[in-house]
Design goal:
Layout lengths: L5 H4 L50 H22 L1
Amino acid sequence: MNRTYSFQKAPRCSATSKRTRERCKAPAVRGWTVCRFHGARGGGPRGKRTGMFKHGLYTKEAVKERRLLRELLRQSRRTLST
C-alpha cells in the first residue's frame, strides 16, 4: 500500500551545502523558501518585544553612545599628540 504524505509533496528547501553544493532535501516551511533548520521563522522580534534586558549593555542607544565616546577619544588623542 503506497501512501503519500503532505510533506512528501511539499516544496524542498532552497539552501545548499557549502561543502558538497547539494541542496537540502528537507521540506520548506509553508510560506518560506527554506526549511526550519536553515532559518525559516528564525530570529527574535524587533522593537519593544525584544525581551527583557537585564543591564542594557547592548541596547541601540548604549552602542551608539559607546561609538560616539570612542570617536571623541580618538580625536582627543590626535589633538594631544600634535
